[in-house]
Amino acid sequence: MATIAIYSLKGGVGKTTLAVNLAWCAATLSARRTLLWDLDPQAASTYLLGGGGGKVQAQSVFTKDVEPSKLAHASGVDRLDLIGADASLRGLDLLFHELDKKKRLAKLLGQLDKAYDRMLLDCPPGLTETSEQVMRAADLIVVPVIPSPLSERALAEVEAHLGGPGSKGGKVPLMPVHSMVDRRRKLHAEALARHPSWPVIPGASVVEAMAARRLPVGAFAGRTTAGRAFAELWQAIERRLARSQKPKTRK
Predict the structure, then answer these.
(1) Which of 86, 17, 10, 89 is nearest to 46 (CA)?
(2) Most buried residue, 21, 72, 89, 233, by CB count within 10 Å?
(3) Is 248 a domain residue?
(4) pLDDT tens digits for 203-235?
């Protein structure tokens, strides 16, 4: 089992778009038993996959009121389950601080090890108590970066926080991804030239259509440029995981 976090210091960079589409690729293209855990109180991933409206608050799993397996439910995609988000997660940072359990999220994920092959975390933005929990729990952090100076600066801050680009040092490695790319824009073209090895997800109308259809791109436009880009990114993630050390033991 491997845990992939979709995280950025900045909001509005395409985290949820990546999380939902990569989860679909894991379940459909790789036939992995996949769980997408929505940790963002905006609950966009939950909405896109038809979740929400459950009787149990999403925060309850962190206070031991309910087991994580009780919150997981099937999505409309074969082999893809969802743990949805709701407004109760607005207080999650404070809860983690009060619990003072540095690996609470990692332990909860460990309880799901036997049920899933891949777990993806849709994370809220910011360097917070929640992001610290994610960094201790994940095997890989995928960071969407809009080709702009501010978005690149946000990535640099995360790299510095983790000890430098690609640093392990007891910390999880990062995988930057250019998102919402328009190659016709000069700034975007220059950014892609600076980082030619980063995967690229284009800005496209089919990506915007996800919200209306409430479906991942692969489910209705898999042969488009965007659909292929998500598939290629997932393949790159699988290769990255295959090259990495064996998953760390969660205590």
Answers:
(1) 86
(2) 21
(3) no
(4) 999 999 999 999 999 999 999 999 999 999 999
